[in-house]
Write a structure and sequence with these properties.
single chain; 2 strands; mainly alpha
Amino acid sequence: MSAQTAPTRVPHDGRALPGTLRTGLRRTWVEMVSFLRERDAVVFILAYPLIMMAIFATVFGQEDQGNAAGSVPFTQYFLPGMVATGVMLTSFQNLAISIAVERDDGTLKRLRATPLPATSYFLGKIGQVLIAVTVQTAALLLLAATVFDVPMPSTASAWWTFTWVFVLGTATGSVLGVAFSSVPRSGKSASAVVTPVVLVLQFISGVFFAFFALPSWMQQVASVFPLKWLAQGMRSVFLPAEAEALEVGGSWQHGATAAVLVAWLVVGLVVGVRTFRWRRRDDG
């Protein structure tokens, strides 16, 4: 049935339901309130990058990261990786775990039985992620600038690069989180399945260590996944121009960054559409 001829769902009181976008915005509020009630998740997801930034910057703040091509203060080099991993935690890990839990406890099944459009449900999830990751990143940049004297970008082009890398990285992480939520067999096992994936990617993607110092085989493996490119895109924003020589390819590779993130976004959409489940495996 075409969109023009499809009947409008009407509740029992005769009023037409609000549109998909409006319902999605309302769902965003519901998702945000639910997220904030999970205090342990809020602390781990939102505060984790700030805590790691404070610890590493305090311990290694006087050291430089570099080679014969040049060097960058540790705190300045470390900040882009923390921004990138914050995006990945708040989007991919948060959604992969929370959706798996909602599927396991029957929340998804109940929502599917309501007039709530599926699109509005996913818009609510993405809206919650966007709000959370924006607050998290703003707090992280404020901490870096005021406490550890990390210089912030001073040009419009740098902030434009930050914007598109940030938005594209958040979208990619969110879509992949939705798709990956079908992997855990239950809500209880979700953290055990999802968290190690994120941890491994953090260690091989230049988040905790300088990417140019990692073994070449590890660099090649990391280059397949989006976190490496998200971190590299953020380094192009927060590091000086001469630090470009520290990259493995000798350049910031913005084109490759966009291409890899878009490719994973498409993969996540295709896999998510084909594999997403509203019920547990043992529930038909």
